[in-house]
Design goal:
single chain, carboxy-lyase activity, 11% strand, PyrdxlP-dep_Trfase_major, PyrdxlP-dep_Trfase, Aspartate Aminotransferase, domain 2, alpha/beta, binds pyridoxal-5'-phosphate, 17 strands, four-stranded antiparallel sheet, 644 residues, lyase
């Protein structure tokens, strides 16, 4: 091993509790130290107040009975939890979960007894500010402006997860799209206004933000009476006030806008469209080519929308699809936004990077600049492909992004994030129309987000989660040299896994046809299998499902019975495109005509998420990747021998 990679391994050694609980002493020390620290804080609040619970209370039978009940229940819970999924183990390569970063876990545990509520500064004087800072940290990782002194600084906040962050993206895009229409309808004087309702509803997102800004400046110079009058008048025209029905009834030439997303998009997009009242039918799923959004199809759809005067709310590009880890051409979506906005069809570009967001750390230098592709590529066999590089390099030009710290951020659940490019747009989400004004002067950046509850979809919200994310980003800054070591490791693991899969396919070619259906863009690797000689997709699907039965959670059996945990997904011709489908079926020696026979018109394949930091155990010279393929080979032979 070269010294460089040795140094890398050493830092990572302190990052996690470890598969064997190796860092138990460290975590225990931290938890006890900060629990005591919390207790001293209580005692030092008003030391003149005497203890309210007597020192002899613990001898009372009621106390003892309560304690006994509590202990019994806690032991039962603890025992039941032993059936949990062993996310921490390098034998777990199923879904998007792994070990937890110690700085985040410790920060969260230490914050819990303070119980801050990030709904507002009143309930969380410390952690609300940390949440706004987390937004800036993530903005920097994505390439957005993250200097709060700048007028066009980005803004981000945490959500319960990617689902709610995607919903926030829809909500903000709709507010931005409809607001210029409200201004126009209210007839606000002195503002440079779009000439008609269609253009007002189709501004480039940058122009829409500029209009919000101009409106606020106009209000700031108006007299208090005028300000109130105009605010009320504009508010009455807004979509948030009238509702979808009232707004579109008032503007009968406008249709309800569509959301364009790739067919592999997460189902949170369907939920979001329903929740916002747009309706599921406004979500138009675009075909893909090679598991990425088909740029020609996007173009053709936008052309059709323009022709039919069908407004588009946003185009969604996915950075790291949930099922395949593929990265959509974000750069092409941005280019389409520019072209079509110039022709009168304005829409926002949102990146759903719930899974892949933290891969962006690999592309950032410590000073925040974008690294060159050669520099990013050093140390990898294939990553990043030119397409992936161009896509991720374009993140800073998008309008908003979803990132899940509880996925590739290795943090406990309840941590998603929404980040938008220019914070001035966020004023439209405020529950209080004149929140900006204390007197007449707008508050500063930090000041304005101290009442977070005004802008976020939730109300009360855990400040402890925020503390975990913040501290993690401070201990491991979001650039390639720090946090980037983690995604770098998962990419190397995925490349090793891919290479080993190809060797498996070669070694077992007499018994099974095995194919990596497409080279992975990131750290998810899929594997398709078909018993040698079989031509039927239905038979191949049944075979892969049997294999997966060995690889999935089964609470009726002891956990230790399982050698490995994996997951499955499917390949659908409408996502692959005809050429790719044929190529993969050919490679598997399957008859395309049999695909429809299995009911679903889809091929079941194994899916592996390679985010565990210990897949290659350097300490003991063990590759869990090799062991997995040995296990898989044995299972394949056993199933075939049993006549499956
Ligand atoms: C996981 C995921 C989501 C949903 O995020 P939750 O945190 O589960 O709510 C959305 N989009 C993508 C691409 C995802 O991978």
């Amino acid at each position: 091993m070269q010294p460089a990679s040795d140094a890398r391994t050493r830092t990572l050694d302190a990052c996690f509790l470890g598969p064997y609980g190796e860092n138990d002493a460290l975590l225990e020390k931290l938890v006890v130290e900060f629990l005591r620290d919390h207790v001293y804080w209580r005692r030092n609040f008003h030391p003149e107040d005497p203890p309210a619970i007597s020192t002899t209370a613990a001898q009372h039978p009621d106390y003892q009975a309560f304690e006994a009940r509590m202990r019994r229940e806690l032991h039962q819970l603890s025992a039941a939890l032993k059936k949990s999924v062993p996310f921490h183990s390098p034998r777990y390569i199923g879904h998007m979960a792994s070990d937890l970063l110690l700085p985040g876990l410790a920060a969260q545990i230490l914050t819990l007894p303070y119980n801050p509520n990030n709904v507002s500064e009143d309930a969380a004087p410390v952690t609300v500010e940390l949440e706004v800072k987390v937004g800036l940290q993530l903005a920097g990782m994505l390439g957005y402006v993250n200097d709060p002194q700048r007028a066009d600084c980005a803004f981000g906040h945490l959500t319960s997860g990617g689902t709610l962050a995607n919903y926030q993206a829809l909500r903000l895009a709709l507010a931005q799209k409809a607001f210029p229409v409200a201004l126009l309808a209210a007839g606000v004087p002195d503002l440079a206004m779009p000439e008609d309702v269609w253009s007002a509803f189709n501004l480039h997102p940058h122009a829409a933000t500029a209009l919000v800004d101009a409106w606020q400046q106009w209000l700031a110079q108006a007299t208090p009476a005028e300000r109130r009058r105009w605010q009320a008048r504009v508010q009455g025209e807004r979509i948030e006030q009238r509702g979808l029905a009232g707004f579109f009834a008032a503007h009968p030439t406008l249709k309800v806008p569509k959301v364009l997303a790739p067919i592999t998009a997460h189902y949170s997009w369907s939920k979001g469209c329903k929740l916002l009242g747009l309706g599921r039918s406004q979500l138009e799923l675009l075909p893909e080519r090679g598991m990425r959004i088909d740029v020609d199809a996007l173009d053709a759809t936008l052309e059709r929308c323009l022709r039919e005067r069908q407004p588009v709310l946003m185009a969604v590009a996915v950075m790291g699809t949930t099922e395949y880890g593929t990265v959509d051409p974000i750069d092409a979506a941005v280019a389409a936004r520019e072209r079509f906005a110039a022709r009168g069809l304005g829409f926002a570009v949102h990146v759903d990077a719930a899974w892949g967001g933290y891969l962006a750390t690999l592309f950032r230098s410590a000073d925040g600049s974008l690294r060159a592709r050669e520099d990013v590529a050093a140390g990898f066999a294939h990553f990043p492909s030119p397409e992936v590089y161009s896509a991720i390099a374009a993140l800073g030009d998008t309008d908003s992004v979803t990132v899940d710290p509880h996925k590739l951020g290795y943090l406990p659940y309840g941590a998603g994030a929404f980040i938008c490019r220019d914070h001035r747009a966020v004023a439209l989400l405020s529950e209080e129309a004149d929140y900006v004004f204390h007197g007449a002067a707008p508050k500063d950046y930090m000041g304005r987000y101290r009442s977070l509850g005004q802008f976020i979809p939730e109300g009360s919200k855990s400040g402890a989660t925020v503390a975990g994310v913040y501290v993690t980003h401070k201990v491991l800054p979001l650039d390639h040299a720090h946090f980037g070591q983690l995604p770098a490791q998962t990419i190397r693991a995925a490349e090793a896994f891919h290479a080993r899969a190809l060797r498996f396919a070669d070694e077992l070619r007499e018994v099974v046809r095995a194919v990596v259906p497409f080279a992975p863009d990131s750290n998810l690797v899929c594997f398709a299998l078909n018993p040698a000689g079989n031509r039927s997709a239905a038979v191949a699907n049944a075979f892969v499902r049997r294999l997966h039965d060995e690889l999935r959670v089964d609470t009726s059996r002891p956990l230790q019975d399982k050698q490995f945990f994996g997951s499955v997904t499917t390949l659908r011709p409408e996502a692959l495109g005809e050429t790719e489908t044929r190529r993969i079926l050919d490679a598997l020696d399957l008859d395309p005509a049999t695909l429809a026979e299995d009911g679903g018109d889809r091929l079941v394949i194994l899916r592996h998420t390679l985010m565990n930091p210990y897949l290659i155990d350097h300490e003991n010279g063990i590759s869990y990747i090799d062991r997995y393929f040995e296990h898989l080979g044995a299972r394949v032979r056993a199933l075939l021998a049993a006549g499956n």
